[in-house]
Amino acid sequence: MRERPFLEFYEGQTLGELIRLEKKYRIDSLVLAIEQGLQSKHGVTEAEETVLAVEALEREVSNGGFHQFFFNAPEHAAYVVASLRRIGCPKTARLAEKAIETLRIDQRLTAARVKRAIERRNDLRDELLDKYDDVYYEGAEEPICDKVFAFVKAHEPSITLVGPSRRRR
Prior knowledge:
The chain has 8 helices and no strands. The protein is mainly alpha-helical.
């Protein structure tokens, strides 16, 4: 059986149009397109933040570990654990929770606090994050991409994409 192709570009399709491409394109490419359709949106719903937080984790941890996630996407740190649980990934949620605990932030998680914490030198924290990265890379956790897509389908009314022509610049 031939593998489905990767959807190369998000071209402003509606969420329904992307969902209907499920049998034609790879799921990971459709999830990426959905994320692209949400990235410049202001005032996101809980369902939209769920997708954005989980996809930021996937993108950043896959490319450089939890350290990179906290550095490049600190705005999603406060939501990622609940978002992972919401899509049905409790093991990855616990792993993300452990990673967040290494930041030792005793107050409410905010992007600014996460950014300050990860910018401080801390060899022990970095060793722990490296271990959590290894667990994440082993793939012993859940099929996150498939879970995100199933979540999106189940919450379609709560998710609206912003097409390229309507994006705020």
